[in-house]
Amino acid sequence: MTHTRPTYSSPYIAPTLVVDAVLFQVVEDELQVLLVKRSQDPYKNSWALPGGYCPKGETTRDALQRITSTKAGVNINKDTSFVEQLYTFDTVARDPRGHAVSVVYLACGLSISCHASATEETGFFPINDLPKLAYDHADIIEYAHNRLKGKITYTNAVYSMMPKLFTLTQLQSTYEAILGTELDKRNFRKKFLQLDLISGTGKKLADGAHRPAQLFKFNQQKLQTLTRNFE
User: Fold this and answer.
1) What is the model's pTM?
2) So what's the pLDDT on residue 118?
3) Which CATH number fits domain 16-153: 3.80.10.10, 3.20.20.140, 3.90.79.10, 3.40.50.1000?
4) Which of 121, 142, 182, 231 is the catalytic position?
């Protein structure tokens, strides 16, 4: 049997491959996302997610590490505890320079410090008070936020945004920051403790004039799926 090669009416031109990072952390009970201020066109002086080209010979995961390090001074391997590939955004008109396919990663951490590069400003912004963003990055952040909200209901992913030792009040505040809603204190504690994700440490945190609160820790510092959803 003979095989014929497909024919094209015009030369094949591959789209540009880029990698973007949505990096979340909770700061003062607010969910915040890392942004950089673009120094070049298109969208010069607009804020955007840290992103860049993924060249031949480099995996998207390696590109993620390089981009977040050079553009924001963040070591994705050390400064975050949870990283996953979020989605591939490939709308043809998302970049005015031409068809660009973006592989987007979602990452979460705690007390992450970012540093401006030689050419770009950087900083964490509350997701409820974002500046006008370049490209389709507002849509990407919304997509990532929804993924994170779902993730913390069926996995222990919230561990990545918590200190090693924490109170139940701190844990609830982190959930509320991500979900964007207040939770009933008694109901939250009852449901969460039934999941067997955390253990008491026997230590307590003195909080001013308040009664010292018990400190807990996660049983595992890695992602695990819950036996039932926490909602």
Assistant:
1) 0.91
2) 67
3) 3.90.79.10
4) 121
Are residues 8 and 155 in contact, defined by beta-carbon separation less than 8 angstroms? Answer: no
Measured CA to CA in angstroms, residue 32 lies from 49, 81, 129 at distances of: 12, 16, 9
Q: Is 142 a catalytic residue?
A: no
Residues 193, 188: Cα–Cα separation, whole Å: 8
Please give the span between the terminal C-alpha atoms of the chain, in angstroms, as a whole number.
58
Q: Give the tens place of pLDDT for each residue, 190-216.
A: 989 998 899 999 998 876 667 788 999
| CATH of region 156-218 | 1.10.10.10
